[in-house]
Write a structure and sequence with these properties.
- With 126 residues, the chain is mainly α.
- It has 2 domains: 82 residues, no CATH class; 42 residues, no CATH class.
- It is built from 7 helices and 4 strands; from the N terminus they run ββααββααααα.
- Strand 1 and strand 2 form a beta hairpin.
- Helix 1 crosses helix 4.
Length: 126
């Protein structure tokens, strides 16, 4: 979740999520702050049901599919923040990958401190 109170942005993450997931969530919420600030200054942006006394922009099942424009934009922001295209291109330059050997992607994901799935998605969609 993210909201702005008295001009100060506040981001909350699920402490039960894996640290890599928390890291992506924070980057995603920073994307909302940078790209959609006008939305979060009037309501709390919450990814799932979250008990709050604030007006909330609640994500519904459609939001979770990644087809909502603001969610796509926040995901793209997070991906670029955590895995900058220039660094991805540099890391992949001249390398050949064996489709059956996942170690190079796992090592690169570790280097960027993201999940293997996030890195694979980023490589396919950059």
């Amino acid at each position: 979740m993210i909201y702005v109170k008295d001009g100060v942005p506040i981001i909350g993450v699920n402490s039960l999520h894996h640290p890599l997931r928390q890291r992506f969530t924070i980057a995603h919420e920073l994307g909302h702050l940078e790209l959609h600030r006008e939305m979060i200054e009037t309501a709390v942006h919450v990814d799932k049901d979250f008990p709050t006394n604030f007006p909330a922009l609640m994500r519904d099942p459609k939001s979770a599919t990644g087809t909502e424009r603001v969610e796509i934009e926040a995901n793209e922001f997070a991906a670029e923040l955590l895995m900058p295209e220039a660094l991805i291109v540099q890391a992949l330059a001249g390398k050949q990958f064996d489709i059956e050997d996942s170690r190079p992607i796992e090592e690169l994901a570790k280097r960027f401190r993201v999940s293997k799935q996030a890195l694979e998605y980023r490589i396919r969609n950059r």
